Amino acid sequence: MTTTTPAHHRNPYWQLWRTAPKEILYLMLGFPIAMTGFGVAISLVAAGVGTLFLFLIGLFVLILALYVGRGFGLVHVNLLEWTGRQPLERPDWQDDRAATGFGGWLSAVLGNAHYWLYLLHTTVLGFILTIITWTIAFVWLVVGLTGVSAWFIRGEVTTGEPDWSLAAWFFGLFGIGTSNWNIELADNFVAFGVGLIFIATLPIVTRGLVMTHWWLARGTLTAFRSDGLRREVESLEASRGAALSAEGHSLRRLERDIHDGPQQRLVRLRMDLAAAERQLDTNPEQARQLLAEAQAQSSEALEELRALSRGFAPPLLLDRGLVAALESVSSRSAVPTVLTSELPDALVIPSEVERAAYFVVAELVTNVVKHSQASNATVRLTVDANEDRDWFVVQVSDNGRGGAGATAEHGLAGIEERARGVGGRLEIESPEGGPTVIAAFLPLPKSSTDRAPIAL
To answer: Environment class of residue 110 by beta-carbon count within 10 Å: exposed (0-12), middle (13-18) or buried (19+)?
Structure first.
């Protein structure tokens, strides 16, 4: 069975009519909003410049003008997006909020080019463009509505012979006389035709006028490319710091565990072997007992070293992939743990993300065993795809007592740093009494999720 799409959904002209009412309302509302913004902002600018000799008063008034420009600019951007135009990236206004002290706040606001561009848009560029576009849209709408309704209203407003005839003027352009015509009827026909033309072209005109505003807003009211680069650099620096902190935390913990565990057993093993060597000739039975104890110490030291080696990427992760390695982690857990994978088929995961995911799950499962008092746990692997970027989501949940948090006491701070180290984040939901759900969102390349999902 085949279905056909209605023509008005396929025709670009009818698509214009779908957004035309919003565009007309935007253009009509734009005039009073622009007039208000211009009046308030220009008054503050004039007052601020006029009182600059008082320094603080003048500066405060100028800064107030900058904030007014920012407010009206954001209103303009929101209205543009309301009409259905492509969203515009807002500037990052956090600099003035993050500044410390009066001097820092003052320099952050006055030194932010976005404030001045927003003020320029409110007082000059946007104001002038709004007057032009409002005039065009208003005239176009009035001529169109008046023309198509002229047939009905002309008799109400016209008495006697008209002093000027639209039909005579129009046909006179082509050298056609109208002296023998019914001039009133001809005027109605011409007015109706002109009105139809204006109404038919109204959505095209409004779209062009709105797009003119959109292009101006894109050039003056959006974030700079350098803003995005700066945020990316800050994010990379934070990720690098988190990665270094996570590695340092892991190394310190490994050093402590080796010192408290295998190292002490190896010292005991050395002492037992030395004692057995001394007893070998004089008391073989005692030597045999010491050797048996040494063998037990070596076995326990080996088990502890194997447990500590789980802090390094296992060969299974490299040989068979992440899912197989996490199945091994789940099967070894003292708390019954089920692994569920909803990953796309042949998903390509960067090696650093795989490694981070493995350690996140291993440490979370260990925390479940040590702290949660849970009777079962679940590990869930999914992909969260959106327009901005794709996320590899590793979720560990249990039915324990809850109350977990990203603090040193709960042992989740290192896991959070590990997630941040690859540009991800950790989300914790653990009310008192449980259950606990902890999810690590790790970044993925956009192209790595363009595949069909399979069930494990």
So the answer is: middle
CA torsion 64-67-73-78 (nearest 10°) is: -130
Assess if residue 228 is contained within a domain: no
What are the DSSP calls for 361-410, one per residue?
A: HHHHHHHIIIII--S-EEEEEEEEE-SS-EEEEEEEEE-S-----SSTTT
- Rounded CA-CA distance 405/67 in Å is 39
Residues 77 and 187 occupy one common structural domain: yes
Is 439 part of any domain? Answer: yes
Q: Is residue 318 within 8 Å of 353, Cβ to Cβ? A: no
Name the nearest CA neighbour of 195 among 136, 132, 139: 139
The pair phi, psi for residue 16, each rounded to 5°, is -65, -40
Is the residue at 21 inside a domain? yes
Angle between helices 322-332 and 351-367 in degrees, nearest 10 = 10
Helix (H, G, I), strand (E, B) or coil at 182: coil
Q: How far apart, in whole angstroms, are the C-alpha atoms of residue 217 and residue 122?
A: 11
- The answer to whether the peptide bond before residue 435 is cis (omega within 30 degrees of 0) is yes
List the CATH number of the domain containing 333: 3.30.565.10
Helices of type H across 121-224: 126-157, 166-172, 183-220
In this structure, the answer to whether residues 199 and 291 fall within a common structural domain is no
For the record, the structure tokens of 361 come out as 């799950």
Q: What residues make up the domain containing 182? A: 1-223
The angle subtended at Cα 123 by Cα 91 and Cα 224, nearest 5°, is 20
Query: Which of left, alpha, beta for 421 (phi over 0: left; psi -120 to 50: alpha)?
Result: alpha
Nearest to 314, CA basis, from 347, 346, 362: 362
| Span 331-349, pLDDT tens digits | 878 888 888 888 877 778 8
Last residue within a domain, chosen from 309, 331, 351: 309
- pLDDT score of 1: 43
**Pseudo-torsion of CA 102, 104, 107, 110, nearest 10°?**
-70
Q: What percent of the chain has pLDDT over 70?
A: 69
**pTM greater than 0.85 (yes/no):** no
Integer Cα distance of 393 and 44 in angstroms? 51
What is the spatial distance between Cα 382 and Cα 405, in angstroms, rounded to a whole number? 23
The answer on 132 and 51 residing in a single domain is yes
| Final residue belonging to a domain, choices 249, 277, 309 | 309
Q: How many domains does the chain have?
A: 3
Write out pLDDT tens, residues 12-53: 888 888 888 899 999 999 899 999 999 999 998 888 888 877
Q: Which residue has the higher pLDDT, 453 or 99?
A: 99
In a domain, 69, yes or no: yes
Q: For the chain, how big is the Rg over CA atoms in Å? A: 37
Is 443 in the same domain as 322? Answer: yes
